[in-house]
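User: Reviewer 2 asked us to show a designed sequence for the structure in our supplementary figure. I'm pasting the structure tokens here. Could you produce the per-position amino acids so we can include them in the response letter?
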């Protein structure tokens, strides 16, 4: 039986064309009982691969997996394309598959083998995925249907970085900030009512953005006071504020976070190379990063995270090694390694799309170089006794690798684990926030999204509050 070219199959073929930089392919696929047979025409040559459906897996998902695996195998084995580290695994949250197999009773060795055999993941990445998923198990087990997380999005930054695709705004006028805070107060108050109505236990709070600490002190104090008043209870295990930019971390901001019980903060250098910071549009220096970190460390015993980005314009392996060594010298509790992802909406991608600048103008490192950056960083982090505890992927990532959180034992970020596994309800508040409700009864995740556009958020906040309430009611009113 010939399979018609559905939207999903076209998407699969597009993913592979993007992965291997293929301009055009002609493919067709047949289903013969439990066998998927794929034929690929390139010029006047035709190649064929076939694979068997695993009967214990979802049949539709298996058809899609085998189509992708067949085509990938042809590209690598017949057309000489280099294997990708994650093979045909393209989703944002690859550890979800590992957790599903753990729940089905498979041990780590079997899971690693299945990742390699069924998804063509490299041995190195199969071990990493399995290690991360195994480390997350105690955190995932700490949640039940009435345990939730809270996310509050503050969509402002002091500048917009070259690569940023997040829906954040350069800090606006006092009038506009006050308008946002008024809408945010209604948003928080409505979410508090939902927590009370359904008897939720708030396990973690994450205040992100944007850069929350870009708010003026009086507004930042109100944000923290509202958050504590609405959501802090005896069941809270983690309260995070993403400070992010060291040029927004001041003694007054530190004192406010300490007073309101924040216990996890971040200082995100991205790079410790001054020329790179200048190039990507950050108005701070490496010394500012060190100053902010040390002031935070002296002020409290909170956990401190630091983010780095691999693949930034103009950087090579030596730059990353130097930056990481300077970060590790500060002894943060958590280091997150991101791979640069060029997305629509970023200034860099828009300039490339509009042909204002060419790829050569940005001097991006090759995929092979970015993979070397990741491998060397991993070795140095492990040598410094950091362990990987959460992982996710994005489209169009440099090196086709991943974003990984590394931490010292016991410093795992609860919110980071719960949001990635999507087994816990997260109530989203603020600009561009998303509410994700774990519908255990129907074994699916349902979502409600606040608008990314600030003007729409301010104008229509009551409408989005109602949408969020209706979603939660549809799941929990009969639970």
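Assistant: Here is a per-position design you can include in the supplement:
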């Amino acid at each position: 039986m010939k399979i018609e070219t559905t939207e999903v199959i076209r998407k699969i073929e597009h993913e592979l064309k993007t992965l291997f930089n293929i301009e055009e392919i002609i493919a067709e696929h047949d289903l013969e009982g439990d066998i998927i047979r794929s034929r690929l025409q390139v010029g006047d040559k035709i190649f064929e691969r076939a694979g068997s459906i695993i009967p214990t897996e979802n049949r539709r998902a298996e058809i899609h997996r085998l189509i992708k695996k067949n085509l990938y195998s042809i590209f690598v084995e017949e057309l000489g394309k280099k294997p990708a580290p994650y093979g045909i695994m393209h989703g944002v949250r690859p550890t979800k598959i590992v957790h599903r197999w753990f729940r089905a009773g498979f041990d780590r060795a079997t899971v690693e083998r299945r990742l390699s055999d069924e998804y063509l993941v490299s041995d190195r990445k199969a071990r990493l995925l399995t290690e991360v998923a195994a480390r997350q198990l105690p955190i995932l087990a700490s949640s039940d249907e009435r345990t939730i997380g809270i996310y509050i999005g503050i969509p402002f930054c002091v500048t917009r970085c070259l690569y940023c695709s997040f829906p954040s705004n350069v800090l606006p006028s006092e009038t506009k900030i006050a308008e946002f805070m008024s809408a945010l107060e209604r948003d928080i108050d409505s979410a508090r009512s939902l927590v009370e109505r359904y008897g939720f236990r708030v396990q973690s709070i994450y205040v992100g953005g944007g850069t929350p600490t870009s708010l003026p002190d009086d507004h930042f104090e109100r944000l923290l006071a509202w958050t504590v008043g609405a959501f802090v209870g005896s069941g809270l295990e983690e309260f995070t504020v993403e400070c992010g930019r060291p040029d927004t971390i001041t003694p007054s901001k530190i004192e406010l976070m300490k007073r309101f019980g924040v216990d996890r903060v971040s200082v995100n250098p991205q790079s410790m190379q001054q020329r790179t910071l200048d190039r990507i549009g950050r108005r701070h220096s490496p010394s500012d990063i060190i100053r902010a970190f040390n002031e935070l460390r002296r002020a409290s015993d909170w956990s401190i995270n630091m983010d780095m980005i691999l693949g930034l314009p103009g950087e090579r392996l030596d730059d990353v090694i130097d930056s990481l060594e300077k970060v590790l010298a500060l002894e943060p509790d958590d280091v997150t390694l991101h791979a640069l992802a060029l997305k629509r909406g970023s200034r860099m991608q828009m300039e490339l799309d509009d042909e204002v600048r060419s790829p050569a103008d940005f001097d991006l490192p090759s995929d092979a170089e970015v993979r070397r950056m990741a491998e060397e960083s991993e070795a140095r982090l492990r040598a410094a006794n950091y362990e990987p505890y959460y992982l996710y992927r994005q489209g169009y990532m440099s090196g086709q690798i991943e974003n990984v959180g590394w931490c010292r034992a016991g410093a795992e970020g609860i919110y980071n684990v719960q949001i990635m596994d999507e087994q816990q309800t997260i109530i989203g508040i603020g600009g561009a926030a998303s509410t994700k409700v774990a519908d255990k009864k129907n074994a699916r995740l349902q979502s409600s999204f606040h608008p990314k556009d600030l003007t729409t958020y301010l104008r229509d906040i009551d409408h989005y509050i109602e949408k969020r309430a209706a979603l939660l009611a549809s799941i929990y009113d009969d639970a």
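For the response letter, you might also mention the following. The chain is about 45% helix and 20% strand. The first strand starts at residue 2 and ends at 3.
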